[in-house]
Each structure stands twice: as structure tokens, then as C-alpha cells.
């Protein structure tokens, strides 16, 4: 804690000056401003933002309790200590009820200022800690609410899970209102079938005690939704107490990817009907794809073929010719070369290979498609 600014209000100017001097001696961090009345104190508050107010009770015009009520109207959390020569349980009770942070009766001697300094220090420390906590919570709430992903805070209970909090994106992605989620178990909020899918993932996260990622399809009021999810455990005192579930709606992307997979499967089936070997390479001459005949002839699988230099499929004495042919096709767009493919049996089969360049969506060369046909003189 840095410097501590204190506003001391007392109509006894001599006592106010003495109190300010003694407090500043007790703690070098203290900076005390004095006011001779509650009215003057309220005026000072417009320009001076103290960390604590110390006020007398009996003052002309506005007394200490009325001053407290006026302060609380604008500063609900600011530490306010009633430091008064008039003491009674009734005044103390009224002060605490009105929102005073503390109550201290004036006494003779300087020991009371040691006590007052301690009370101020404790009140200000607590005030700043609570203020920082409020600000942290507000920042967290802002991040939570404005996240692009749907966010759920899930309590881990002894016999299951319960939704504690959600942001507006959850409602957007699911069509479920906050009242339909918060305070509910997955079964209550999502139905038995959906709940089985999410509860299984939640339990896995709790057991593994680390973030897990998964894709799940759920049926919501907005329809069937594919969620891409990250679930992270919050661990306190060695126990998983809560889960943070972050998810987004990938339904459209999933549909596009599924359509692309189906289209690729159709194309693959068409290529597999060819009796001739077909290869697809990148611009470096490494295999990206082969049809069934090419795999059968060379003894490769799709997994072992991908990444293999196409030159490895030919005898050593023909590899330079194949390299030149690949370069020529990439440069001119097409070429033809006759070469002997090394078969799985160890034999060689001559083919006339016709290579055509492939382009990407920006019309840049992306690789080659190479089709082998029986050599004219074979």
C-alpha cells in the first residue's frame, strides 16, 4: 500500500491539527487534510479523493451521522471512522447501522492515536483489497461476456455437474435462455441424450485434471449444432471444483467439410476405376496422392506413399530423367516421358507417363497429376 490520504473533519481546529500531526508521525504514509465542518468536508470531497474519512460526531449544523449519510450517498465503500468525544452504545450502534466502517471514542493521552492509526490502516487495507477484487471481477465479467466463444462455468458436485454461469454467446449458439441453463444440471437443461454426451466429457476432464478438446453434436432449440469444445478444470486445494467450458458453433464448417469428404470419396472412386496408375505430386515432386492401381503396382499404401519422392518409384538409372520430366511439366504445363515403374514384385513395367500441371485457386502451380499408360512398344 502506498501513501494514505485521510480527511479529518472536526470543528475543534486545534484538536484537528493535533490529530493530523500525531497521525502523520505515527505512520509516514499518512497525509491528513482537515476540515472544520461537515459542509467543508463535503466540499473538499469534490477535489480530494481520500482513502479514509475520520469525523467527529458533535459538530454545528451537520453532525457526524448526517455527514456519514451524505458521504455514503456518493461513496458507498469509502472507509469512514467516527472519532468522537461523546460515546455511547446508542451512538456506536447508529453509526454502524448508517454504514460507518468503525467507531472510536476519544480519550486522554496519545495512545488513542496509535489505536486510531491502526484502525485507519486496517480499514484502508481492507478497502483497497476489496476494491481490487471488485475491479478484477468486473474485468473478468467483461472478458467472460464479450468472448467470441460460448462460455459456461460448471460446478463439479459430488454426484454430477451444475451450470453456474453463461455468457450471451451460449444463448446465441443454443437458443437456450439463461434461466433454462443456470442452476440446472445437464440433464435438466439439455435433456438426457445431450446430457450423456457432455457429462462424459466433463467426467473425463475431471479425471484427467487438464484441458480436453473435443467435438460434440447436440440438439438445441435452434436445431442440431456441432460444437467444437475446450473444457478446462479449475482446481482448488487439490480438488476440481469447477469447469470452464468454451465452445463455438462449427455446424456450417462441419457441413462443408463433410461435403468435401463426400466429393473426394466420389473422385477417389472414379480414379480407382482406372486400370492405369495415377500419381499426384507437389511442386517438389513428392507424392501427395495415388489411385488404387498405383498403390497395388508399387506395393505402397496411401500412408507410406504420401511424402515419398516420385523418383523413388523408378530404377536408379532413370531417376534423373524423371526429375527432368517433372521440372519440364512444372515449367511448361505438360510433358510426356517413357520410363519403367518399379513394381512390388521387383520387376519393371514400362509406361508412357503423361504429366499435367495443377493450379490452386490463385492460379499458382500447385503440383502435377501423372498418368501412366502402356508404353507404345511394350
TrEMBL record:
Domain Response regulatory: 5-121
The keyword Plastid appears for this protein: no
UniProt KW DNA-binding keyword: no
Domain PAS as annotated: residue spans: 136-209, 263-333
Modified sites of kind 4-aspartylphosphate: 56
Sections of the chain in a coiled coil: none
Keywords for this protein: Phosphoprotein
GO biological process: one example: phosphorelay signal transduction system
PROSITE patterns reported in the protein's UniProt record: PAS, RESPONSE_REGULATORY
Pfam families named among the record's database cross-references: PAS_4, Response_reg
NCBIfam families membership: sensory_box
Stated name of the protein: PAS domain-containing protein
Amino acid at each position: 500500500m502506498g501513501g494514505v490520504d485521510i480527511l479529518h473533519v472536526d470543528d475543534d481546529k486545534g484538536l484537528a491539527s493535533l490529530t493530523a500531526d500525531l497521525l502523520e508521525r505515527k505512520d509516514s504514509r499518512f497525509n491528513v487534510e482537515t476540515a472544520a465542518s461537515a459542509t467543508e468536508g463535503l466540499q473538499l470531497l469534490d477535489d480530494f479523493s481520500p482513502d479514509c474519512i475520520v469525523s467527529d460526531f458533535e459538530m454545528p449544523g451537520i453532525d457526524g451521522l448526517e455527514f456519514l449519510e451524505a458521504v455514503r450517498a456518493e461513496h458507498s465503500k469509502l472507509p469512514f471512522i467516527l472519532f468522537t468525544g461523546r460515546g455511547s452504545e446508542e451512538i456506536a450502534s447508529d453509526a454502524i447501522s448508517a454504514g460507518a466502517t468503525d467507531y472510536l471514542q476519544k480519550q486522554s493521552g496519545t495512545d488513542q492515536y496509535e489505536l486510531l492509526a491502526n484502525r485507519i490502516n486496517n480499514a484502508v487495507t481492507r478497502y483497497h483489497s476489496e476494491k481490487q477484487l471488485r475491479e478484477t471481477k468486473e474485468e473478468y465479467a467483461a472478458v467472460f461476456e464479450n468472448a467470441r466463444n460460448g462460455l459456461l462455468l460448471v460446478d463439479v458436485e459430488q454426484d454430477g455437474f451444475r451450470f453456474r454461469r453463461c455468457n450471451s454467446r451460449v444463448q446465441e449458439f443454443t437458443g437456450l435462455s439463461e434461466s433454462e441453463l443456470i442452476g440446472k444440471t445437464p440433464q435438466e437443461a439439455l435433456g438426457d441424450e445431450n446430457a450423456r454426451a457432455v457429462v462424459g466429457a466433463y467426467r473425463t476432464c475431471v479425471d484427467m485434471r487438464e484441458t480436453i478438446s473435443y467435438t460434440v453434436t447436440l440438439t438445441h432449440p435452434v436445431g442440431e449444432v456441432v460444437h467444437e469444445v475446450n473444457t478446462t478444470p479449475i482446481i482448488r486445494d487439490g480438488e476440481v471444483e469447477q469447469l470452464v467450458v468454451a465452445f463455438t458453433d462449427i455446424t456450417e464448417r462441419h457441413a462443408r467439410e463433410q461435403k468435401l469428404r463426400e466429393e473426394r470419396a466420389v473422385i477417389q472412386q472414379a480414379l480407382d476405376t482406372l486400370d492405369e496408375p495415377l500419381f499426384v505430386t507437389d511442386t517438389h515432386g513428392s507424392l501427395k496422392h495415388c489411385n488404387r492401381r498405383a498403390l497395388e503396382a508399387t506395393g505402397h499404401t496411401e500412408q507410406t506413399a504420401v511424402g515419398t519422392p516420385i523418383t523413388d518409384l523408378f530404377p536408379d538409372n532413370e531417376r534423373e530423367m524423371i526429375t527432368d520430366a517433372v521440372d519440364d511439366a512444372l515449367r511448361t504445363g505438360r510433358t510426356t516421358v517413357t520410363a519403367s515403374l518399379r513394381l512390388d514384385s521387383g520387376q519393371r513395367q514400362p509406361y508412357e507417363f503423361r504429366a499435367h500441371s495443377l493450379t490452386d485457386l490463385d492460379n499458382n502451380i500447385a503440383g502435377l497429376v501423372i498418368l501412366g499408360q502402356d508404353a507404345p512398344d511394350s
